[in-house]
Amino acid sequence: MTLSALSRVTVGALAVCLIGLVLAVDLARSGAPDLFTAPPAIALGSGQAPTGAHCTAQ
Known about the structure:
elongated; mainly alpha
């Protein structure tokens, strides 16, 4: 490996580690999501009215 290829691998590994660290800290601070009380990700045709977005405010 050349120096530039080694540094690309190092930067890539550090980026993946940083993303993993951010996810771990977020999970530790907020806890796991409760999937039974979460709103549906896609509610097309479910009959539920949209809530919580700025476009739904009257």
